[in-house]
Amino acid sequence: MDKNSKNDQVKDDKQIGCWAKFKSLFEGRGFDLEFEYNNHRTAVAVGDNNDGYKKIDDRKSVEKRTVSESSENSLEGELAGVINFYEQFSSLGDDTKDDVDVWRRSSGVRNRVSIRPSALLTNIIEENGECEDDVELNRSPPPANIPTALIYSPPEPLELLCVFPERTSRVCAAACSAVERAGGEARSLRCARETLDALRRDNDTRVPHVIVVDARQPQQLDALLLARAIRGTKNTQHVYLIAIVKKSAYLKDEFGVLAYLEAGFNRVMVETVNTTAWCAEVLQARSSAACSRAQIAATAALAAAADRCRDLVAITDDQQRILLTNKSWCRMLGWRLEEGPRPIHEAAGGEALRLATTGARDWEAPVTLRRRAAPDPIMLPCRGATIGLTKTTSHIVFVCEPSAGEGDRGRGSLHSIRRGSLDVRSVASDGLRRTSLAKLQGLPLEAPITKVISLLSAATEGAPPSTVACIERAVDMLRTSELYSPQMRDETKLRVEDPIATDLIGALLSREQVNQNLVYMQGNANVLSSRRSSNDSTVVRSQTNRTNIKHKTTGQLRELLDTALSWDFEIFRLEDLTRGRPLAHLGLALMGGRFDVCAALECDERTLLHWLTVIETNYHAVNTYHNSTHAADVLQAVAYFLEKDRLKNLLEPVEAAAALISAAAHDIDHPGTSSAFLCNARHPLAILYNDVSVLESHHAALTFKLTLNDDRVNIFKNLDRDTYKTVRHHVIDMILATEMTKHFEHLAKFVNVFYAKSSGSKEDGMHTDEPLSLDTTALSQPENVLLVKRMMIKCADVSNASRPQKFAMEWARRIAEEYFLQTDEEKAKDLPVVMPMFDRATCSIPRSQIGFIDYIIIDMMEAWAAFIDMPELVNHARSNNQHWRELDEAGVTTLADVKRVQRQNAIQAPPTTTAEPTTEE
Ligand SMILES: Nc1ncnc2c1ncn2[C@@H]1O[C@@H]2COP(=O)(O)O[C@H]2[C@H]1O
């Protein structure tokens, strides 16, 4: 073959392929086509009428062109007409850049579809992989409308139903005999009622391929009404409906067919008694019916697949109105399946929508979805595609992936929302990226929360809507990563009613405090507290100042220490008697004596004494509250709790030792200001710990640093590696648990584990007037014992509010003084004020205590008191609360007021004698 003829052959092949493609675009769709080729002022429409295919064009300026003489009065003929037209038009050359406008007209609605002849060829070449550089190729071909493998229509005998009021109609007889000749079966009925009854009865078994309705005698049979009724019957979408009209009526009105088409007929046919014509007609009709039946069945299969997948699926039309949503979508967003078309913007937003509406073919980007039952939208990863038979979009598909844990596939948190959009095709070309994503998905990672969410989601299947709504709310809550972060109840109410309580609770619980404050802070570096220094130099100080105490007690001190395990232990008397060294004395009495920590740690008493001394020395005596008396108080509370049966039987000696060590050291080197203050002041500790758990991290780290630094104080030196690791783990965990920003996290975990089965609890599981029913079976699991230990040190840390009144009052005075000093310092150094209400001139101490007890103490003490059987914890808290209320009403406000009340109360207090600790080297 020479070069030219080879080129011609290629061109012919391309054109044949082009026509095939063109044909396939419209094949079997059953609508009228109209073409307009603007450049050449050629306009041609193809429509079926009684005379076969012809051009319908009344525009004077347009060159007329006959489409097809050979076309038959059928869909095939229509396509033949189309192809014929295209043949003529393609002679213009396939490199023309002019678009051909194809007007798709269906049921009277005209939709414009632009086709460029060269693009048709290009598409075919693109599919064959021959052309890679064309700009057109950047837009992937639209995904196939329905995969051909799904469109399976088994050959089946033709079924015809004739509806003719006239029993002896010759037209009906001709149709029936044509069907029999074609090997099919025909039935005839006389009226609309019989027809509809038959269709309803035969619904799933014998729905005919073709129904022919006699429309010639409207007085006897209203064909239009019947067509509408048939289309309203289940499973009749694919039935090919033919209306038989009189030739005279047909020729009278060229647009008369429209009424029939709109009523649901597929075809209007002039009456004929010619059996051959009927035979051709019914065969074509059967082919069309079988084809649309297969397509509808395939669509139903795809919709069923969408309904059963866990992803949220929505399909819109080209106007972005949602046409179809699957069950997951409805369930999660609170939609009803039967809801009519709604704009997608009502439900979705974000990058995915932007891409969808700017013509992307295939994308992967986050979508925000609005839920009807919840105010906050959710953000999910979304994969989408636009579907269209040509470059024009017909549908947009959104597939949104529920967050981690929703599906069975164990996607886990790794499959989180990707920020920004991701071009799927660029990923496909990026083998590495793809592989690593696949690897991540394959990892056997599944958190318990993932399983919980899966179980809950499964429980919504078939559940009543109210239950589904509850479960979905619960799942939404579980999905948040800050599962236990504090949410202040009635916060607005509190804010309005009591700004002091709001200030205090906010400062204690909020992790945002620092960030908020940082906003206000401008260039205030080097504003460290001169009042109380706090940095690593304390290590040096502790070593140089180390003083070993010879435990020489007076009779009074000995007597006092004998009461060390009572809840009204006179801690301030101990402070006086030991001249500010209560921790070493009490520590030695409790840790060295009653709890025999030395035996548990295999160390001698001297090492323990040295350790206590070093620890105590590293508390700041200058602090009014966070000094070694507070440490001794917390140690005493922990010792008291450890004596309770529940804990005595639960903890190993080494665990009890770890608890006492944690209590003694839990606030070591506390600077007397809060972590928020340190962050705002850019303190080296805040820098070191990245503003996260600054003080608690420092307390734990310094405890080990001081302990391990010197063999003479190293109470762990004889422990084997594993025991040391265990003790270290427990001590660190307990000290970190005293961080108040995690207060509700620890409390909620404890309550959920040990009171999970209590009835009548409110939504948050804690604040309830119903008595809590304790369930301690969970204690068999070590991780739950950890919760107990955390709760123990937490309760001990703030136990001052649950002590008898005189102690509670003194502690309240001390902490208020410390808060005021912090505020003074913040103001002096132009730092953000963490608790502005804690101003010594204006703050009401009683009201701060009422807030503290109401919002921090009561819930926690109730949970803990029931657990260790110590009702006095709650009783004291309530009675202190009441006392503060009375003082508030009596006008007690400032520190001076509180001191005055204390003096009045202390008139009968017995005098104290001082202990004489001696030093030895
Ligand atoms: N009686 C009280 N009134 C107000 N705040 C308190 C009281 N007792 C303890 N706190 C606060 O609770 C916190 C518990 O952890 P800290 O010891 O670090 O610091 C403590 C104080 O900030």
TrEMBL record:
GO biological process, one term: signal transduction
UniProt keyword terms in alphabetical order: Hydrolase, Metal-binding
CDD domains, A to Z: HDc
Keyword Metal-binding listed: yes
Cofactor(s), by name: a divalent metal cation
Residues annotated as catalytic: H626 (proton donor)
Name of this protein: PDEase domain-containing protein
Species whose genome carries this gene: Bombyx mori
